[in-house]
Amino acid sequence: MLAKRIDFPDGSFAGTAIGMFDVGYFDKLFSALKTGRQETVALRDKELNLIAFWPNNRAPGGQIGSQAVSQETRNLIEKGSSAATYKARPPYNDVEQMISLCKTDEYPFFVLTGNAEYEYLRPWRNEAVIALIIAAVFTLTTILSAKILFKSKETEQLQIESKQLAEDKARLEGVIEGPRPGHGNGMSRPGKPF
Predict the structure, then answer these.
(1) Distance CA 22, CA 18 (A)
(2) Contacts for 110 with CB less than 8 Å, ≥ 6 apart
(3) 59 three-state secondary structure
(4) Radius of gyration of the chain measured on its C-alpha atoms
(5) For residue 100, how many C-alpha atoms fall within 13 Å in the half-sphere facing its CB?
(6) Do residues 17 and 25 lie in contact, with contact meaning Cβ atoms separated by under 8 Å?
């Protein structure tokens, strides 16, 4: 397990503050976590020296031994906070993250996890898109059903009106033509007396 010697940028030996250990252990441990593209996990000592960082970051703030942290993180640790969740913009990726900080009980370490807004809101956004699709389908189905029902009622009304018009037409034709001679209407044929 004691495979790597870790020196901080100022030249001090990390072994005097935290003991010798294999940093690769933390890489394996943190890599087992399911992280998104902008999710991070960091382990820092009580002086805020970076011990391990996932995903491996070659940016200046993500190098082992770096003390580059957001001002919010520094303020919380200086106040003695052992656990907190807050928004900050870490210096190693310049993306605002929701950061959770927790001090370990047995060792003088801080574990920090960061998650970009679009990462932690992704499940909610996916559900919102599904809800909007369902609402759109329901609305479209309701509109189409109403249109079909309206057309059906309109067609039914037109058929009733058409039948009424046919009956009215037949009645009017009967009135215009008048009674037909010799059809038992009590009238004799023209030119013949009763």
Answers:
(1) 12
(2) 43, 44, 45, 46, 48, 77, 101, 102, 103, 104
(3) coil
(4) 43
(5) 7
(6) no
One-letter amino acid at 55 equals P
What string of DSSP letters covers 78-136?
HTT-SEEEEEE--TTT---EEEEEEE-SSSSEEEEEEEEHHHHTHHHHHHHHHHHHHHH
Instruction: Give phi and psi for 63, each to the nearest 5.
Output: -85, 145
Torsion sign (Cα): 29, 35, 37, 39: negative
CA 12, 15, 18, 24: dihedral to nearest 10 degrees? 110
The end-to-end CA distance of the chain, in Å, is: 138
Rounded-to-integer distance, Cα 105 and Cα 117, Å: 29
Give the residue from 68, 125, 118 showing the smallest Cα distance to 97: 118
* Burial group, residue 158, by CB count within 10 angstroms (0-12, 13-18, 19+): exposed
Token representation of residue 21 = 């250990």
Asked whether residue 22 carries a pLDDT value surpassing 70, the answer given is no
Rounded-to-integer distance, Cα 20 and Cα 7, Å: 11
Indicate the pTM of the whole model. Answer: 0.53
What tokens appear for 53 in the block?
């960082």
Q: Which of 64, 67, 65 is nearest to 54 (CA)?
A: 64
Per residue in 94-116, pLDDT (tens digit) is 778 888 889 988 888 898 888 88
CA distance 79 to 45: 16
